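fwd from M.: "can u put these together and see what the complex looks like"

so here's what she sent:
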Amino acid sequence: MDYTGDPAGAHAYLDAATAAPLHPVAREALLASLADGWADPSRLYAAGRRAQQLRDAATAVVAELLGVRPDELTFWPSGTAAAQAAVLGGLGGRKRAGRTLVHSAIEHSAVLHAARTTEAVEVGVDRLGRLDLAAWASAVAGDGVALASLISASHEVGTIQPVAAAAELCSEAGVPLFVDAAQTVGRAELPAGWSLLSASAHKWGGPPGVGVLAVRKGVRWLSPYPQDDLHRPGNPGALGLPQVVAAAASLRAAVGEAAAEAVRLGALVDRIRDRVAATVPDVEIVGDPVGRLPHLVTFSCLYVDGEALLHALDRHGFAVSSGSSCTSSTLRPSHVLEAMGVLSHGNVRVSLHRDTTAADVERFLTVLPGLVADIRKEAGF
Amino acid sequence: MIRLAKAMPGVAVGEIVRVLADDPAAANDIPAWCRMKGQEFVAADGHAFDVRRLS
């Protein structure tokens, strides 16, 4: 196979878990809300009141879809900002209980970075990426635990976490649970029992630059930022209101399509799992084969450099991500793959979205075995 | 990893190969390789990893 630099077919973007393409409803809502959404919703003149109406309507929509009250919801400049506000604010509100954060070993790096600001206890996962509930139980029951953090489903391998059971254990220990639900909101049912929850609009087809944070009533949360004295705590500064409106509209659309898309994308993911295992030698499909997100599949290939495979796929028009070292902002292999004890090199994560077609997946499955073979040959294997 | 795989046919079943690797992924990936290829991961000591050929 020779590389011409030209993709052999139409481009296929297969990295929805990083950022899903903008939902058409989000685009429409974004353009429409630019007309009124530029004004400051806290001002009392007519333009401010129109902006306030937009903000309140968007808040109501997102709150309803997440099953929370509007006054339990705040918007943030990103999913990362929302998740970090959840962790820092959750710790701040429970200073008297202690300063320990209990978290799974497979949290998003945004949460792990926030964990470095305090004392942290990490709880491991099994080979399939499922939380060790026995270890979790003793960790959250420990002295000085202020907050626990568990991702709803792994953003790297798709394994759904036992959030309800973990929440039960937190409740018994009197510890609030933060759930980073970025990969679940807009795609699958939300788990029950959490105290704080965050999500990110560009994972469900909304625009980038919108994170959401829900803090249930009765949960002590203290903003990590300086606050003014009029408003309930939230992100300081002006809200990206047009983006928030677009995020709300696209969430409603995504939730409406979620059940059908889960079936359609789940079948495509099954096809990838089966065909990659059958056509690529020395490959490991990672993550729980059953309890997993419908749109995401990850595999690792022996004797293959992940970065080389990413570039080869890119040359053929496929955008995927990788947990191998040197493929993102870190020189180390993915902490998620390490926690699971699965192969980290030659790693590829494929994540699908509403624009992904069966033809895209077929072409990917046709091209992949040859690319892996070429890289192995070049490396002298 | 490729050199480990290539060295295996020259190792008698039951014998141990020592792999020297300073790649930060080695501590994770050499045991994973053993599991995938049905070999035994014996021990790690810094950048040295011992693998026993089982088959």
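replying to her w this: Chain A has a mean pLDDT of 94.
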